[in-house]
Every structure is written in structure tokens, then in C-alpha cells.
Amino acid sequence: MLSMLLMATVLVSAPMDFEDHFTGQTLRFDYFHSGVAAEEHISLDAFRIEGEWPGSRTQLIDPTGLGKYQVEMRDLQSQAVLYSRGFASIYGEWETTGEARRGIWRTFHESQRMPEPARPVQVILRKREHAGGFVEIFSCTVDPGSRFVQRMPVRKQGELWAFQEKGDPSVKVDLLIIGDGYAADEMDKYRADVARHAEALFAAEPFKSRRDDFNVWAIDLPSQESGITRPRADAWVRTPLGLSFNAFDSERYVLTYENRELREIAAQAPYDAIMFMGNTRKYGGGGIFNLWATTSSDTSVSEYVFVHEFGHSFGGLADEYYTSQIAYEDFNPAGTEPWEPNVTALLDPENIKWAEFVDDDTPLPTPWKQDAYDETSYDYQKKRNEARARHAPDEEVEQLFAELKEITTPMLQGEEYFGKVGAFEGAGYEAKGLYRPEPDCIMFTRNPENFCRVCSAALERMINLYSE
After folding, report:
1. Bridge pairing between strands 134-142 and 159-164
2. Measured between alpha carbons, how far is 245 from 232 in angstroms, rounded to an integer?
3. Is the pLDDT of residue 232 over 70?
4. What percent of the chain has pLDDT above 90?
């Protein structure tokens, strides 16, 4: 049932005694998300029981308000909200591309996971309007006792193992790392790559201080061939996860559209977040809030990309850079406040979303030498584009990254308000009209080793949502 009714401003909430409302298993809702920029549709695929619910059994309602979409479960009789989470999606990004705006239809398979209810419930999907509220775009009733709920056992694929196990999944953040494009004789390399990238994550704050709140799982999943697909190089590889460069025709953007297959693979593990690691030397990655993230394994900055993309997928953080090429058009419409916690349109400077971190003597907007930074950044962007156009070795492109870092690190650290939280213009793919909290951050450049204070606070909030 499709509807465009506004979401109620006050949600009815039930007493959150987990055993009163849920069976302890995981219910997966699979659906198809189709449309163009001006029109979208949701159609049911299946409901599927995966195994024991790995998420929190006490923090079932999402208080963050993050995400382009929301999934919600309501008790049929009382209409009490039993479970909710905000999320973003591949479709939500794709609808801002030129292809969608030209009226070319696409369909993406998506999933939402929630604790299995003990009784029939209503499952609702809502989408954020530009004004900030949510509208209902899909609703259906599911009876967990129905013969239409799939209950076949999860099939073993690969070998599940723990990189670190700190406690019961229900009171920890469970991160699952799965490699793609690792041949059978590269499993030792894969395990070493898991360790290297996980350690990079826990070397960065706030994850360093919160390491004991994480379990990290991995699945050895051999591919028939080594490497992942690179369409612009005419290199096509069949892998278990289907990772590929050139998502949305953006050369460095790594995604997969094989959602049902990867969900079946991931269902072998308890997980709250997933990182896919492509076995490749080429620079690339991606991250979508409450979906998953991707990274290349072997570039000189792969550890940085791992941490940066996890910031997207786990914390709902926006990209703060704006000088790199992207596939989106009008990703953040003018005059609207982005939902991401680390970017603002500064529509109300007196009530900026990160006001608690701003000193009284810091002006809003906050001045910085943007012209000098832009001149350098755009110059190196041009050099990288030229190098890629002539299919230069990856090492040459990485050298340009290193040179840019060497120049811009002291440049940004020399800013008058470096180390201060303010509103620095240039963020969210826009040079003008959007603002970031600090001159530099892991979400802005490859220079710093830690997230800024606003991003750190947002990540801590998500850690708290999954741990106790």
C-alpha cells in the first residue's frame, strides 16, 4: 500500500521488553526499489528469517533522525513502534544522477533487517522530504507465522572467523569484513588485509577509545579469479559479491548491485555493519549509511579509505570535500538543511546543529583561505584526471595524492581557526552554500589521522546505539 501521508511528529512507543515483542531471530525484508528522479516505487520481494538477532535488545528505536529513509515496525493492534532505523540506499543516490533525471528507469534490490516479531506487525518505509519531514512510501503487514515467510537454513559459504571478539553481539557493534576477488591461494593475504585495515580503524579516534565495544568478524570467501571488475579498463571478473568500479559512471566508486546474494553470505555472521574489501591495486571505495562500505585493498591510502568510508556507512557522515568529480546532480538542494550530522547549509546560524562545540568568539560562517586551497586542489584534480585518461600506473596517481597531502596539510593547519569548530564554507560536493565543522577532517582530506570533534561525536552516538 503506497501513501504520501506525513509521518506523525510523536511516535507511540511500546514498553521495550524485548521478550514480550520478539522471538530472538532476525527478520529480513527484501524488496525492489524502482523509479526515476521524479517517481519511485517499492515492491515486496520476500520476508526471510536469517538466524539469531545480533543487534541491541534494549535500544530498538532510532533516536538519531539520520538517513534519507526510515524503516519502522509497528504492532498491528496498538500501533506502538517496536523498531526503527534510519538508512540511505543506492537508489537514493542514483535518483540524483543525470541518468535518473533523464527519465531512465532503474531497479535496485534492497533489504532491511529487524528483530523477528512475535505477532503480526506493520512494516513501513518512509522517505525524507526536502523540508525535513518524512512521508510514507510503502507499508505492508507481515505475519511471522505465515507460510510466506522463508525459513530455509542459511547456507554455509566460506569460513567465518573472528578477528576480535569482545562480547555478546547484542551489546557490541558487530563489524563484518568480507573480501571479494581473493582467489583460493590468496586467503592468507586476505586475512592479513583484514588485520591491517581493522587496526587502521582502531588507530583513529573515536574508535581507538571504543575498541572494546566492537566485535570484528570476517568470512574467507574464495573467488575463481583474482581482482574485481574495472569496466573502463575492460577488465571483467566474476566474483561472489560482484564488486565493481565505475558505479554511476564514476571511475573510483566501488559498489555491487547483487544485494540478495551478499545478504545470504553475510547472514552467516552477526553483523550491524559491513565492509567489503576488493582485492585490487586501484584506488576506490564507497560508503552508504546503514547499508555497507567498500574499499580497495592495496592502494597506498587503502587504510584511510577504509576509515573514511566506514564513517559514511556507520556514522551517516557526509563527504566534506567538494573539488573531486562526482556523478550526482543537486545532491543537496539549495535552501535545504542536509540530514548528515557534519554538513550544514547554515540556514540558522544561531542554532547551528553542532552549536555545543562552537566557542562564543568563533564567527559563523568562519573565514578560511578557500581560494588558495581551491587553486591547489583543482590543479591536482586536473593532473589526476589527465593521468587516468592516459591509463597511467596506479603508483603515479597515488604520488599525486601524496604531493597534494604534503602541500595542503600545513596549509590547513595554518588557518586562523584551525583546531576550532565553526562553519567553514565548502562541503558536501559544493564549494558554496554548504559548510563543514573544522578546516580539516578525515571526511575532508587524506591529511588527518582522526575525525573532527563533530564527526567523532556523531560516531560515538552510533556506537552507543549498538553497545551497552
Report:
1. unpaired
2. 8
3. yes
4. 88
Helices (H), 154-211: 187-201
Return the C-alpha cell found at 209. 577509545
* 431 Cβ contact partners less than 8 Å away, ≥ 6 residues apart: 322, 323, 370, 374, 425
CA distance 322 to 32: 32
| Contact present, 364 and 349 (Cβ < 8 Å) | yes
Rounded Cα distance between 38 and 96, Å, is: 10
Q: How far apart (Å, rounded) are the C-alpha atoms in residues 105 and 199?
A: 41
Report angle CA 447, 452, 454 to the nearest 5 degrees. Answer: 155
Joined together, the cell numbers standing for residue 165 give 571478539
How far is the first Cα of the chain from the last one, in angstroms, to the nearest whole number?
37
Would you say 449 and 437 are in contact if contact means Cβ atoms under 8 Å apart?
no
Residue 442: left (phi > 0), alpha (psi -120 to 50), or beta? alpha
CA 106 vs CA 25, 88, 89, 97: distances in Å: 32, 17, 13, 11
The yes-or-no verdict on residue 288 having pLDDT over 80 is yes
Q: Are 464 and 62 in contact (CB under 8 A)?
A: no
Place of cell 587504510: 303
335-350 pLDDT tens trace:
899 999 999 999 999 9
Q: What is the phi/psi pair of residue 187, to 5°? A: -65, -35
The SS3 assignment for 233 reads helix
